[in-house]
Write a structure and sequence with these properties.
Blueprint: H1 14-26, H2 31-40, H3 47-75
């Protein structure tokens, strides 16, 4: 079964869509701030377009990031959890 391209019918390139969504998610910016920053870089889109892209592609990008993190932790053959000893508050040693 072939995967369909999620960016197929969009006029903007996937790189611009990814940049806009990641700017909105990664930094504490409003939709209008993302619009302004992209406009300064010569990309003329509306804040509503950024909102639409976030709703459409946000879950897909989040799944990609999650999948990469899991693969990265599984790539270590002998990864281990380390737990430090803790002393409850108020107890005397």
């Amino acid at each position: 079964m072939m995967k369909t391209d999620p960016f197929k019918y969009f006029h903007s390139s996937p790189e611009i869509i990814r940049l806009a969504v990641m700017m909105y998610v990664r930094f504490p910016l409003s939709l209008r701030n993302v619009e302004d920053l992209l406009h300064e870089r010569g990309i003329d889109i509306s804040h509503e377009t950024v909102r639409f892209w976030w709703n459409r592609f946000g879950p897909m990008f989040a799944a990609e990031i999650r999948r990469k993190r899991v693969q990265q932790t599984r790539s270590y053959s002998n990864w281990q959890w380390h737990l430090d000893e803790g002393v409850p508050r108020g107890s005397c040693i």
